[in-house]
Each structure stands twice: as C-alpha cells, then as structure tokens.
Design goal:
Elements (H helix, E strand, L loop, with lengths): L1 E5 L3 H13 L3 E5 L2 H9 L5 E5 L7 H11 L4 E5 L4 H9 L4 E4 L4 H16 L6 E3 L2 E4 L4 E4 L2 E3 L3 H11 L5 E3 H9 L8 H17 L7 E4 L3 E4 L8
Parallel strand pairs: 1-2, 1-3, 3-4, 4-5
Antiparallel strand pairs: 6-7, 7-8, 8-9, 10-12, 11-12
Length: 229
C-alpha cells in the first residue's frame, strides 16, 4: 500500500514516514505539484497525505486538482485552527482533515480508517425516494442526474441511506463512518452534511431535505419528501 506524502517540512516528512513504514506502508515523498499529479495519474499511489501549508504551492488548489483528476483518497494536514479555515479545507474535497499539532499515531490511524472505508463496499444498490446509489461504481444519482461526491461524502450518504428512517447523532456518525473515537469536534460531520445537501439540491431542488436534521439528536435519512411549500 503506497502513501504519497506531500510536505515541505523535513521533520514532518521524517516522523510520519517512520510511523507509516512501521505499519507496513510504502511512503513516497514529494513537494512538487507536477510530479505529485503525475504519480497519481500513473496510479502510483493509494492515498495522499497533503500539507496545505506548503511554502511554494497552494495546498487547497492541489487537493482540488487531485480530486478532479482521480479518486485517490486525500488526508489534509493543516496548522490553521480557525473554524472557517478548517471548513475551507473540507470544501477542497479531502476524506479527512487533521489539525496540527497532531500525534503521528492518530494520523496513521486515520489513514488506515480511510483505506478500510474506500477499499471495499460492494452491496446491493441502495435507494431513498429520489436518490439512488450504486456501490460497485460508487455512483450517485438524484432524479436520474448523477452527482459527484468525494469518497467521504459518498460513505456518509451510503450509510444514511442504508439506515433510512433511523436517527444518528454526530458522535455516532464519527464512529460508524469515520471509524475513530469521537473527540469532541463534530464539524467534520456538519461540513459533509452541508456539502451533500448542496450537491443534491443542485441536481434536484429540495432533494437535500431528504437528509433531515433532528433537533437535539443529529441526522436522519427520510424515505420521502412531501409537497414543497
């Protein structure tokens, strides 16, 4: 399993490489945008760890390019603690975001969780009223219109659709979809739900309401939308 580490800080590259290699990953290192994109286009990497605070590159733009070119999972590293900056990081389309300072073990755990989620998910097509998901193709349509989702957005939507009618707290979703213990920050879930609704509404106005907010609880996938207005 090959991980491409894009970071211009020697200490971070050294520490993360050591921990990843101990877990059996083969680590490729890069700090050049063209070289990194070429590796991915040639299918030389299974996951990208990208520090968006690069001195000579726009990390968010690079993340968006990676997601546009192929479906390689991306984990972002950032030193930006402000909520707006963290949300902006998620909007670039990564599968997860880790804020510095971080534990190398936590990063390795999150990488392993991303790989587990994205490696296999083959079960019958799931649908909820206007919404249809095909796990084999990882394809989502709303009223017959295909929408493009990040891997993490797809995983979250797939989980909610397969449990239509059941309410989940944000903590539940962190555990079941992200596969790591809740640590007091639910912005990841909130941001992904917001993006899912927006993309669904673009394809079919009002369809984002299928993902319902249950006050005091969390979220639930509805099987039907009543008349609007």
């Amino acid at each position: 399993m090959q991980v491409l580490l894009i970071d211009d800080d020697l200490h971070t590259r050294s520490v993360l490489s050591r921990y990843l290699e101990k877990e059996g990953f083969h680590v490729l290192k890069d700090s050049d945008e063209t070289s990194a994109l070429n590796r991915m286009l040639q299918n030389q990497t299974d996951l990208v760890v990208l520090d968006i605070d690069l001195s000579e590159l726009n990390g968010l733009e690079l993340c968006a390019k990676i997601r546009h070119e192929n479906h390689t999972p991306v984990l972002i590293l950032t030193s930006r603690h402000d909520e707006k900056d963290v949300i902006s990081s998620f909007e670039a389309g990564p599968d997860d975001v880790v804020v510095k300072p971080f534990s190398p073990r936590e990063v390795v755990h999150r990488i392993s969780a991303i790989i587990r989620r994205t490696s296999v998910q083959v079960s019958p097509k799931a649908s909820s009223s206007r919404l249809c998901l095909d796990p084999k193709a990882r394809k989502v349509t709303v009223n017959g219109i295909e929408i493009e989702l990040t891997l993490k957005e797809y995983d979250l939507l797939y989980y909610l659709v397969n449990h239509t009618g059941r309410s989940f707290s944000r903590e539940n979703l962190i555990t079941e979809v992200w596969h790591y213990a809740y640590q007091g920050d639910c912005r990841t879930v909130y941001t992904h739900i917001k993006r899912l609704r927006k993309k669904m509404n673009v394809a079919a106005p009002g369809s984002g309401q299928l993902i319902q907010t249950i006050r005091g609880v969390g979220y639930r996938m509805s099987s039907w939308l009543g008349p609007s207005g």
